[in-house]
Amino acid sequence: MRITNILTLGRLAAAVIFLIVFNFDDSLYAKVASLLLLIFAQVSDYLDGYIARSRNLVTNFGKLFDPLADCVFFVTLFGCFAIQGYMPKWMFLIILFRELMITTFLRPYFSYKKIVLSAKMSGKIKTVAQGLAATIILIFIIIEHVSNIIPVGIVNNVSYWSLFIVVVFSLYSLTEYLRELKKCFNERS
User: Which of 26, 62, 64, 177 is the least crowded, having the fewest Cβ atoms under 10 Å away?
Assistant: First the structure.
């Protein structure tokens, strides 16, 4: 098995571990471990893409499972945030809807029609925003665990506005993919 595929599978495993660690252990160590899992997921996503492109190791497995692993990891992470009260459930549902639309409907549809669905810049920005927001939130959660310097409510405010930006980018990137779908329908009719 190629290193790129191992990194992708590692992100899927990291999602399961994150779910368990973040939700079932409220200790400082669990929150630090959650942050490390997030960092692993982000670094492995970058590395597997870089390695696959630079060494010409792009595979059908990678094309399918790389975006799926990213989707599973971030949906798991944001689901944990929603369960623990760090994220409004309506924000989680919007992000979930966007991820499911693109990962389970649009990508497979375009693949079935033999149309290359290239990554959009808005999707890349959305991914960076997700990673930054999640990292910032976890850092604030960790600081909240170790000191009393953060006033009550700051973590929730930082979380809300960080994730609001993610929701905006998620919706914008979804509209770009839907425009691409509409364009394909118009060309075929």
Answer: 26
The pLDDT profile of the chain, 189 residues, written as one tens digit per residue, is: 788 889 999 999 999 999 999 999 889 999 999 999 999 999 999 998 899 889 988 877 777 788 889 999 999 999 999 999 999 999 999 999 999 999 888 888 887 877 767 677 888 899 999 999 999 999 999 998 888 777 778 888 999 999 999 999 999 999 998 888 888 777 766
Structurally, how many domains does the chain consist of?
1
Give the residue numbers spanning the domain of 103. 3-188
Instruction: Please tell me the pTM assigned to this model.
Output: 0.91
Long-range contacts of 5-10, Cβ-Cβ distance < 8 Å, separation of 24 or more: 5/48, 5/59, 5/61, 5/62, 5/65, 7/44, 7/45, 7/47, 7/48, 7/51, 8/44, 8/48, 8/61, 8/62, 8/65, 8/66, 8/69, 9/65, 9/69, 10/40, 10/44
Assign residue 29 the CATH number of its domain: 1.20.120.1760
Q: What is the CB neighbour count within 10 angstroms for residue 151?
A: 9
DSSP letters, 29-54, are: HHHHHHHHHHHHHHHHHHHHHHHHHH
